[in-house]
Amino acid sequence: MMSEDTAPPRSPEAPPAGRLYAGIDVGSAATKAVLLSEDGRLVGHHVRRSGADLVAAAETVLDLALAEIGAPRSSIVRIVSTGFGRTVVPGAQQTRTEIACHARGAYHHFPMAITVIDVGGQDNKVIRLAADGRQLGFRMNRKCAAGTGAFLEEIAHRLDVGLGELDLLARQAENRSIRIGSYCTVFAATEVLSRIRAGAGLPELAYAAFESVAQRVLETGHAEGPIVLTGGVAEHSPMLVEILDQKLGTPPLVPPFAQCCGALGAALFARDGGGTP
Amino acid sequence: MPDAKPKPIETAKMMKRIMADHFREADAASREAGKKLAWCTSVGPAELLHAMGFTVYFPENHAAMLGATRTATDHIPKANAIGYSPDICSYLTADVGAHLAGKTPLQDAYGLTGIPKPHVLVYNTNQCRDVKDWFAFYARKWNVPLVGVESFRGVGDVTKEHVDSIAGQLRAMVPELERIAGRKLDLDRFREVVKESRETSRLWRETLETAAHKPSPLTFFDGTIHMGPAVVLRGLPVANEYYRALLQELRGRIDGKVAAVDGERHRLYWDGMPVWGRLREMAVQFLGLKTCVVASTYCSSWIFDALDPAEPFESMARAYTELFIVRDDQYKERYIRRMCEQFSADGIIWHDAKTCPNNSNNRYGMPERLSQALGRPFVAFNGDLNDLRCYSDEQVKTQFEAFVEQLAGG
Predict the structure, then answer these.
(1) What average pLDDT does this structure show over A110-131?
(2) Do A143 and B382 touch (CB under 8 A)?
(3) Which domains does chain A have, with CATH numbers?
(4) Residue A171: exposure state from Cβ atoms within 10 A (0-12, 13-18, ≥19)
(5) Any idea where the domains of chain B sit in the sequence?
(6) What ipTM was reported for this prediction?
(7) Which of B235, B275, B287, B309 has its CA 20 to 30 A from that of B263?
């Protein structure tokens, strides 16, 4: 689901000349860096697991994003950090919350009244934005893994498949009526075991896991207007996007590099010169 | 840059002294011949008990101390293990758990060997049913009489029927209290205590209302500490001496343009319980965010305008039934709306305390309704008053910071 530093993915646009603005999002599961050129083009990015050494993760994603475009560290004018590890990022001039950054990144791609749903590794957020980009309100999940990437990891573990295989497996589900009803991830895992005992197939259970995440996310907060999905789960699990489409009756919008949307927002704040309120 | 520190309030030194006296008197009353100790719930009939010569001890205050000293979460599992659910009041479970462990913060703070054993336990269910269960534990444990008042809930207008019922229950407990106290109720003394308590209430209201000033000289986090005498010493002259001194200091801050939060940019209202184990961290975070939490439902819950020495039973009944916690949602919405306007709050923080449904007013759509009516945003966070197993530091910090970012973004 994410690069392990060996082969940085190609960024969407040509390498820049001159000054760069960096956003670094140290999330609970993954650390992301985005580089913006002076004119606001995304010119480099990198993603890796956060692991236990958050400082190293932040340094590494930034170095590899720079290496990808052959730019020196000195080309960075300003760094804004975000995510749960935002306060430990070396060299960051300012911090913003991941809520503000996902909102900013999503609005950059979809400048209208939207509801941003970020499904992260250990939390999810529902953020409502006005047509002018002002944040109207937000909600986070309860202190619970339901509706997050951590839930999918647990279910993948129970099913003895890799997290990256879960989406493909879910697509093979013929019976899509199985539901995992519990809020609690441990109870949900128990439900999965009882379904296995009753003869349910792995694809059906993988589908049920995505359905559960979609349901929990929609329960987090009221969504108005088009929904923009951000975060690693949105980027790597098209199944979730499809299920949300079915539930909402309209396809959610997914920005490019959805996993890096928070880092993009941070980089945009860096370019603005904004930071801690 | 190091975190800013909350500005000390000098009068707090006086509070330390009078609270120490309070606990030592409670300890003495539990041991010495001729003295009697009553345990009382936080909005129980303290005035009546004082009038009958009891020294009064408040277990809710003790439970908050367990929370503030961050020992509650160590003790709660002991109560859970004997059948008190992790989902019920974590004041109850922390206090009972600490008792089972033979621990109390009163040991380190005041040199007491344990919590003071009562001669009678007196509850009022206006806080919740849990206070009755809590006291019942000790009544069984120590074979001590348990008396109390069963309050109404979801009260709209406070009617004569409500008042008559509660006043009747208060009167009905008098013979048992007289038996335990070994003396008759002196009505003149009772009126005198109610008068003092009314004055405590008036002074506490004035203290809290200093925060309507811009910038505020006081934060909610200060208020949760300085409400101590209004809870445990109301009805006694010493509480009134304390609040006169505190008021003088706060008025001095206003005159000197001294803000509790330097550079105050945003003002917030707090609904729900404090997170006792995180008071300082939250106070420091809001200092850094240049945001003052100026008013709260919680601290204001010890204002009893209805107390009247001319009618001590009826006015106590009215005061304790006018209480926010027992009112219906229409009243609560009007109340919070009025408070937000009076204190110029830019937004509302709602604490959804896992183990305290009666103080978690966000669960039936009130934040959304009030936000719409007031045109001011809100943030609701999950936490608890005492059980830090139900609390996520990172998530709550991020939500507060994001809320202030939202306010700053206009």
Answers:
(1) 92
(2) yes
(3) 20-100+259-272 (3.30.420.40), 111-254 (3.30.420.40)
(4) middle
(5) 1-410
(6) 0.85
(7) B275
